[in-house]
Amino acid sequence: MGEELFIRLRYCFQGGYTLPQYCIDNGIKKPLFVLERNAKNFMLEVYAQFQYDNRMSAQFCFIDGEAESARISLNQRILGTTIVVKHISHKWINYFDAIIFLTLKKYELKAGRIISFYNLERFFIQRTYVDIPVLHFLQRFPKVKFFLTNFPDNIKRYEGGAEFEKQIPGASELGNALANNKGKNIKTPFDKFGYTNAEVIELLRIDRANRNLDGTSSLVDDNHPLKRIRNGKRETAYQPEHYKNKIYFFGPCYYFGRNAPFDKTIESYLQHMLNENNLPYRVENYGQAFSERTQDMFYNLNALDLKPGDIIFCHIWNMHSNGDIIPFCDVNDAFDPPNDYREIFCTKSHVNELGYRLVAEKYFKFLTANNFFSDAEQNYSSPPHTVTHRYGIPPQFEDSGSKSFVNEELEAYKKTLREKKVQIGALVMNCNPFTLGHLHLVEYAAARVTKLYIFVVEEDKSEFPFADRIELVKLGVKDFSNVEVLPSGKFIISQTTFSGYFSKASLQDVQVDSSQDVEIFATEIAPTLGITIRFAGEEPKDNVTRQYNETMKEILPRHGVEFCEIPRKNFGDEPISASSVREALKAGDFDKIKNLVPETTFIYLRGRYSMTK
Predict the structure, then answer these.
(1) Which end of the chain is more exposed for a tag (fewer CB within 10 A), N or C?
(2) How far apart are CA 498 and CA 501, in angstroms?
(3) Where do the domains of the chain lie, and which CATH numbers do they carry?
(4) Which of 18-32, 202-216, 284-298, 467-481 has the highest mean pLDDT?
């Protein structure tokens, strides 16, 4: 009996669950503990628990194992008896079953009640670190929908799975091979998704973690475009600006999305499905690096600002729930035929983005089939069981500082305070040149905020030079008392932060990444000026700008910055754009230009055009 088992039993005892309570819960009236001779520390722990909780007594015996025989010496102070059992295989002794079977008759035990210490340990950990804290959590938040869940990570359950598992590398093995490839390209299971070797290395290293001073752990922040980890959490793509409730995922590496980019995780796929079905839920990724650190989940659970109707999926590694006690969502068949598991597993026990999509589909079907998207009061009842043992809830969970639901009167007061909050807005425009369409955006935004900053793109990669463009904007908005015009610098739509913006003509059919630019604005620029809302015009034609708007819509609200998309101003049936002005200039059509730009811009263009002629 190893020291590790002794330590785990001690932790469970300290957590609030004891061996006598286990016996009572399972109808065991005369427990007999059969231990190896060298397990004295473990025996003393068991003995102490029965002394502390003296509702029943226990019997003990020790095993002296030899190749041909074994001696069972019952504690003299308890039984005063010694039994010698001969011709017992040493291999059997390790599992105790054979020896215990030979003593069944003497102690009037039933064969069905033989329990190995390893199974006992598993039950104790389940009870102490899963059932008790979850039930306690549900008693405090009865209108939150909580489900324990699992993940289909066992390749061997599929035909040919054991052989296939031998053929694919482990994550560490693959990572080391790629890191030591000396510049040579290595074929990997990720090639079919188009990732380079360097990108695969990054995807394999998502699980780097911090051990925090408060006892928890968290993922290491990483702004790599594939990883997107901020404040210890992995970001979820497609999150809506407005939503009614949240769906939280807690679990090991599968749930923070190892081996997949941030927009191909279970959470991101599920968020996309919710958006497509107009379901007002926002999905949050609380996946963690250390699968065995169950306590991290409950620290993080108790720190949530929960609302009635919120949904939580919690995967506790190597633990399973009795569905009669705690609601359970089973997704273990997500990779079953007609799916081909060989297309899903990319490293041993880990899946690729295809696997995460299939699991997300299972969660979506589970939620919709059971009508869990309706109001909490209509479809959720309190948990059927409560914790009744005498030692209560583990103290590490009891005093964790959890939040209760917000008082309605306090919410109403906070709403009145928000109405007093000064709104500071921002517009970022290239103005190549400044048009009536730009002026319309300024009028719309300035009417809705106390202060409006206009950032004019400073990078000189446009037809009109920056000095002229910013001057035209200043002249065009001079009548707005709450508007200030600023250069964008090198961190707002620049060659450094969003180079694709200056190559839009060749990128119309390409997926562009403007996340770095938007992240810098949200985390650095906006807080510096107190900006609370960013405006942008709708983009019906330019695919690059439209993608930029989508990125702002996704990222800005995460950092407390609202995003507002403004309908474009039309001339005739066409939206006014700087490109249409430039086309008219080439044709010399100043009659058309006069309908597209303010007078200050028209004077500038006519003078500049005449000079070039």
Answers:
(1) C
(2) 6
(3) 3-125 (no CATH), 143-369 (3.40.50), 416-612 (3.40.50.620)
(4) 467-481
Beta-strand pair 217-219/209-211:
antiparallel
What count of other Cβ atoms lies within 10 Å of the Cβ of residue 444?
A: 16
Rounded CA-CA distance 54/471 in Å is: 87
* More confident position, 9 or 349: 349
Token digits of residue 488: 């964008």
The answer to whether the CB of 229 falls within 8 A of the CB of 221 is yes
276-303 per-position pLDDT tens digit:
999 999 999 999 887 667 767 777 887 8
Q: What angle do CA 292, 296, 298 make, to 5 degrees?
A: 115
List beta partners, residue 535. Answer: 427, 564
Q: Tokens 């508007």 belong to which residue? A: 483
Three-class secondary structure of residue 216 per DSSP? coil
Output phi, psi for 149, to 5 deg: -145, 180
- Give pTM, 2 decimals: 0.53
Q: What are 129-163's pLDDT values in tens digits?
A: 677 778 778 877 888 999 889 999 888 889 998 89
Helix, strand, coil percent values for the chain (each to nearest 5): 45, 15, 40
Query: How far apart, in whole angstroms, are the C-alpha atoms of residue 303 and residue 134?
Result: 14
The whole-chain average pLDDT of the chain stands at 78
User: Structure tokens of 173?
Assistant: 């093995």
At 245, which amino acid appears? Answer: N
Structure tokens at 304: 């949530």
- Secondary structure E strands in 49-110: 59-65, 69-74, 82-86
Q: Enter the tokens of residue 287.
A: 């996946």
Radius of gyration for the alpha carbons in the chain, expressed in angstroms and rounded: 32
Sheet holding 451-456, edge to edge: 483-487, 451-456, 424-429, 533-537, 562-566
Query: Does 319 have pLDDT greater than 50?
Result: yes
- Determine contact, residues 101/113, Cβ cutoff 8 Å: no
